[in-house]
């Protein structure tokens, strides 16, 4: 197991500091707002392939009592979704498949309370926010899942998380239309728990973290474990299936003609006796 001094310096896209057992994790891309990229990892190094490992290191350190997660800049994550996801080979897809499962399950495996301070729009992988126990949002925050805008199946865990936090019917509309919802709408839906001015967001996150860190450690650790057990089970049941369907659709190089070509019409079916 790595020490805090070792893993806190390990990731170029994550800044970490710890005070009285409270670990503050700030995700960023070269000091600014976190940008996710699968096409050009050199442009925005590391976050997709490092975040799960960072969650694992954090969860393995018993000196951590509470975790606060926020992002640099005026937004939580970007860029806005656009463009079709490029096809990948089965082996290329498997790398993303494994990393995606590891990233979300490693966050759920952190056995201390996790507070997410959403400092602005979360336009990429906002689903991870709702695996945290307490979600605070800046007034200008907004949320979107852009899979369908990129002709991609929302099967990387979004199909599990959003129905839980916003209801099944509402989540289907949200995912199929790539709807963008405001912080106020997210509060009304029960997705976020408090809305604050941006300049008061982190003070409130620290206030809550200090309150939780003062509790007996086994109380907070076991409470977190208990409260995310249902999420773990649903993710284990459904995430692999979702990623498989997402990958299968990604491999389709002729979506306009596939169904017509592969499925015969009623006049083409010959009955055998």
Describe the protein in words.
The chain is an alpha/beta fold. The protein has a single domain (4-268), classed as 2-enoyl-CoA Hydratase, Chain A, domain 1. The protein has ten helices and eight strands. The chain has helices spanning 4-7, 47-60, 90-108, 158-166, 168-177, 183-188, 198-213, 217-227, 229-250, 258-262, and strands at 14-19, 22-27, 66-71, 114-118, 134-138, 142-144, 180-182, 194-196. The strands form two sheets. The chain has a six-stranded mixed beta sheet with strand order 1-2-3-4-5-8, sandwiched between helices. Strand 2, helix 2 and strand 3 form a beta-alpha-beta unit. Helix 2 runs parallel beside helix 3 and helix 3 runs antiparallel to helix 9 (229-250). The model has no long low-confidence stretch (mean pLDDT 88).
């Amino acid at each position: 197991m790595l020490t805090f001094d070792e893993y806190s310096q390990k990731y170029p896209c994550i800044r970490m500091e710890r005070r009285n057992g409270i670990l503050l994790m700030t995700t960023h891309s070269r000091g600014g707002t976190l940008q996710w990229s699968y096409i050009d990892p050199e442009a925005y190094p590391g976050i997709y392939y490092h975040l799960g490992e960072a969650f694992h290191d954090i969860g393995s350190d018993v000196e951590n009592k509470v975790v606060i997660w926020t992002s640099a800049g005026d937004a939580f994550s970007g860029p806005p979704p656009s463009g079709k996801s490029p096809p990948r080979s089965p082996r290329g897809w498997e790398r993303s498949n494994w990393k995606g499962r590891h990233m979300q399950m490693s966050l759920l495996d952190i056995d201390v309370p996790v507070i997410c301070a959403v400092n602005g729009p979360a336009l990429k992988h906002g689903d991870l926010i709702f695996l945290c126990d307490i979600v605070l949002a800046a007034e200008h925050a907004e949320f979107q899942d852009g899979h369908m805008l990129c002709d991609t199946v929302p099967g990387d865990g979004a199909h599990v998380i959003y129905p839980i936090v916003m209801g099944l019917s509402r989540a289907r509309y949200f995912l199929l239309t790539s709807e963008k919802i405001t912080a106020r709408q997210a509060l009304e839906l029960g997705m976020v728990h408090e809305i604050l001015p941006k300049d008061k967001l982190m003070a409130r996150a620290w206030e809550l973290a200090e309150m939780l860190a003062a509790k007996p450690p086994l109380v907070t650790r076991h409470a977190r474990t208990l409260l995310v057990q249902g999420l773990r089970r649903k993710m284990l049941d459904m995430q692999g299936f979702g990623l498989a369907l997402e990958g299968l659709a990604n491999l389709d190089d002729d979506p306009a003609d596939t169904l017509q070509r592969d499925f015969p019409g009623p006049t083409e079916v010959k009955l055998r006796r």
